[in-house]
Amino acid sequence: MKKIFSLIKRAPKRMTAAVVMLLAAIVIPATLFAYGPDRPTYTMEYPADHVTFNSITDNPVVGDERNFVRIREDVAGTTYGKSVNLVPGHTYDVEIYYHNNAATDTNASGKGIAKDTSLRIQMPGEVDKSATANINGYISASNATPGTVWDTANAVNTSAGDVTLRYVPNSAVITSNGKVNGKVLPDSLFTTGTKLGYDNLDGTIPGCTQYSGFVNFKFTVDQSNFTVQKQVSVDGGKTWVTSATAKPGDSLQYRVIYQNTGTTEQDNVTLSDGLPKGINYVAGSSQMANSVTGGKYAAEKDGLTTTGLNIGNYQPQGNAYFKYSAKIADSKTLACGTNKLTNVARATTSGGWKEASVTVTVDNSKGESCEKTPTCEKDCTPTTPTTPTTPETPSTPPTLPETGTTGTVASLIGLGAIALSLSYYIISRRAVMGR
Q1: Are the C-beta atoms of 173 and 182 separated by less than 8 Å?
Q2: pLDDT digit of tens for each residue in the chain (435 aa)?
Q3: Which residues face 272 on adjacent strands?
Q4: How far is CA 107 from the centre of its chain?
Q5: Angle between helices 2-10 and 13-27 (to 10 degrees)
Q6: Could you give the domains of the chain?
Q7: Phi/psi at 384 (nearest 5 deg)?
């Protein structure tokens, strides 16, 4: 903080205002801006001399009037505050206080009477997981200073998914000392706003706590949610598990369980269940149990393992059980070895889809599809090869006598070559010796 103030002191005067605004945005907590705008404040002993709303800081009923939007869970014994945690299926009560702070003695001249006073509520319809909804209230008057004041209450979604906020019809009611007490405000409260008043809902409110009042409305928290489970039985439906072992050709039963765990009705729920290669659906075996069938299984049309089936509409906590039969392929069809056959069931609703799976493990190591090891009709033990015999070195062939013309010619050629070599030698010696 010392560095921050040092920075302000060193900043040129023309930049000081901008620096202060920037630092204020960094240092001042956002909660201080839950109401607005920044405006002069008053006390019960010293009220305003003009029309202004919710600016008294020591109101004996509500305390600081700038915090005029408050919220609580709609349960006996709970108190209003600035924030609540949203729980699907629960209802909440929002309270807005309004008070023209003009002194009573300004009413006679008309100076202190508010004109065209209206209230508008801003509330989101959807709140994402882990997000905070701001419920804003705006009070306006055509002759007030400032013209509009506002405040915020927070609703925090701590549930595991997105939620929907739904206004409870006709729950917006005004409480006043005047004739408007108990009036139901129109739905325009949540759009363009609606007029407040004392004798009539005409926007006219004199100054003083006598003419102040409350507006309360309720909303519920809805959440679209559901579960889907997948199970298999290898003993004819006696026990249901999420994984099993079986043999080629065995019969199976599959079961898919859907339940609406949300707070809203889910229409046109669709189930599908794709079978893996190696498991075949048994035609005509589908059955379903729900509230329509009285909780007992009744025949259902085929299609779950192909196109999927629409199983109807379900209120919160409504459910359905769907089962069918299937058969594992024979050993010749399955791959040799261990086959892990997994199929996935899917439930689809207006709130999205979810899946669940089971795995059946089939040992086909001795199946017909496995390759056979070749066998020998006779003894197939290989014999040890004998060491090869080293061939004998042939003896020098005998010299044959030279006879006839061929020998004579060879002799003459040999003598000629010797004589020619001797002649070249003599000539070369002379050349060396200079002769």
Answers
A1: yes
A2: 333 333 333 334 333 333 333 333 333 333 444 899 999 999 999 999 999 999 999 999 999 999 999 999 999 999 999 999 999 999 999 999 999 999 999 999 999 999 999 999 999 999 999 999 999 999 999 999 999 999 999 999 999 889 999 999 999 999 999 999 999 999 999 999 999 999 999 999 999 999 999 999 999 999 999 999 999 999 999 999 999 999 999 999 999 999 999 999 999 999 999 999 999 999 999 999 999 999 999 999 999 999 999 999 999 999 999 999 999 999 999 999 999 999 999 999 987 899 999 999 999 988 777 866 555 555 555 555 555 555 555 555 544 444 343 443 344 334 344 443 444 444 444 433 343
A3: 346
A4: 58
A5: 160
A6: 31-222 (no CATH), 226-364 (2.60.40.740)
A7: -75, 125
Q: Give the amino acid at 158.
A: T
| Closest residue by Cα to residue 115 from 41, 32, 203 | 203
Cβ-Cβ contacts under 8 Å for 97 (sequence gap 6 or more): 54, 61, 62, 65, 68, 70, 212, 213, 214
Kindly state the tokens that stand for 183: 């009036």
